[in-house]
Amino acid sequence: MYQYDQYDQAMVDARVAEFRDQCERRLKGELSEDQFKPLRLMNGLYLQLHAYMLRVAIPYGTLSAKQMRMLGHIGRKYDRDYGHFTTRQNIQYNWIKLEDAPDILADLATVEMHAIQTSGNCIRNISSDQFAGAAADEIADPRPWAELLRQWSSFHPEFSYLPRKFKIAVIASEEDRAAMRLHDIGIQLVHNDAGELGAKFYVGGGMGRTPMIAPEIRDFVPADELIHYAEACLRVYNRYGRRDNKYKARIKILVHELGKDEYTRQVEEEFAHMKTLGLNPPVAELERISTYFADPDFDQNAPDDLDMSDPDFRIWVEQNTHAHKQSGYAIATISLKPTGGIPGDASSDQIDLMADLAEQYSFDELRVTHSQNIVLPHVKKADLYALWQKLDAAGLAPANLDLVSDMIACPGLDYCSLANARSIPLAQKISERFADVKRQQDLGELKLKISGCINACGHHHAGHIGILGVDKKGFENYQLSLGGSGAEDTSLAKITGPGFDEDGIVDAVETVTNLYLKTREDGERFIDTYRRIGMAPFKEALYG
Amino acid sequence: MKIVTGNDLKTGDVIWWSGGETWSRHLGDAIDAGDEAEAVAAREEAAMRVNVPYIVPCEQSDQGPMPLHIKDRVRAFGPTVRADLAINTNIPIVKG
Ligand code: HEM
Ligand code: SF4
User: Fold this and answer.
1) B29 in any annotated domain
2) How many domains does chain B have?
């Protein structure tokens, strides 16, 4: 894992001290709310529906056991004993007191964490593949690249007042586990014909009210030009992005309005100019960072066989573990989606337990996934059974990864002041309706995603089944859409037709899954059947 | 009728104006501010007894003033999915 150097630590500590002073001045009335709001937002502190909310950055979703334990401690000491893991691989606390906020940030700083750039029109926390450094199918570990981008983008003065927020994802395998093409910049590490490692750039994706899939604008950027190229992409945006209209201010609108070719031309022109400045950090820096992400000390002789005589364990292994690049090891995903639970929520005790298990079984490491789960990236197969038993005892072993009950759901109207409708109760009802895991396994991979408003924090545009909460004359109403994907086959879901009330939408989900079961061909997932037969039969089944 | 709400500056708690210089965490204590609503909000914010106040249109119910908009009813209730953290669980979220 990356470790702060003295500059990182000094910057974060200075920021805590600065914020402490700002909070004190606010509490004494020396700063008005109008003056204070931009300052608190720069430190991740929002005022939400019920209280202050703190969003803590988890760079590329990677955590050490010590950092995870700190997240549990913050929930216990300053919040109400839990936290909410988000689609951007961060954690949010919903019940923060203003007077505690500086102490929380100081506690976080002791484990090299902060809440900087988790809000506002800047480059936000960089997301990545939760299996980075462990996946059998990756060509390199994307995290050193993400870390280089993090260092470049942290406190970058030129990009601290962009037209709008800016999100970057970095992946390094063909399978996209990070919704890469739905980011402002999506970077995929690739080899060129000469076998050198570099990056493919996709620019102008996003969700929100105008969802767009990022087009590829360059198929290979050499490693020693990565920062220059990213900087060129941002410079063109910073100059021409629509600052006049908040709803048109994201880079996706600029790329769309200019056209991919013209945007690319301008980026290339800026890139040529950037190269004359020679500001790109040398490859040696990337190599230096990479040393922090070296493989842990894997047991080269770890046995590959696994006793799966316990049927419940077998289901969990089938569903929640993935192939590791090292033989004898597996990647284990801890689902935060129990039947009837709140997607992404974990109690402080559960957070502590996951930290302990990471220490014991996963070389001290955890990951947060964009689908609001936690990963133990490096577990010996021989330890899986013991791990599973401990998880199960703590309610952390739902065997439902990528199944219908492994939903993404934003906080919705239960917590969010921008919401039109509640998302969590829907997620709970749907998971109860489909509680039988055999039934879920029969339905196969099915990504259901729920947002409480058009901002799309719950990725509903990218759901095989997407649900969007809307306000219909003062009542909560839900639009159903089908056919989205945030994976390597990225697509945007289409609305089926008129919306449903809370019970109606649960029935509607069952109606479309029943149609799938009836019409699927061998090996087809829900999304494949939808793509083959189209919307019409689903409409017919729903609205008759 | 109109009531005034906002958050406690220090704790962030949702609070409701309950007359004079008093604020309550319970919607049931809220009183009609009528034509004074704007003035109450401005005065109380200036005195730092409330943060980011705003006015909530309400109707009279058996339980006192009831916000017309669902968002304010959820604010008064607390998260509807965590009864253990909610404060005013008698409030009907979905009307009608
Ligand atoms: C509760 C406080 C939150 C607020 C005020 C908020 C606000 C917003 C807004 C305004 C947008 C639209 C941005 C645009 O289209 O320009 C957005 C998008 C998004 N938010 Fe949130 N959000 C909140 C919570 C969350 C949570 C909890 C998550 C993760 C579960 C999340 C993840 C995202 C994602 C993934 C997007 C869409 C990607 C994109 O930026 O295009 N947000 N959010
Ligand atoms: S999608 Fe809307 S309701 Fe959900 S968290 Fe984002 S802003 Fe809030």
Assistant:
1) yes
2) 1
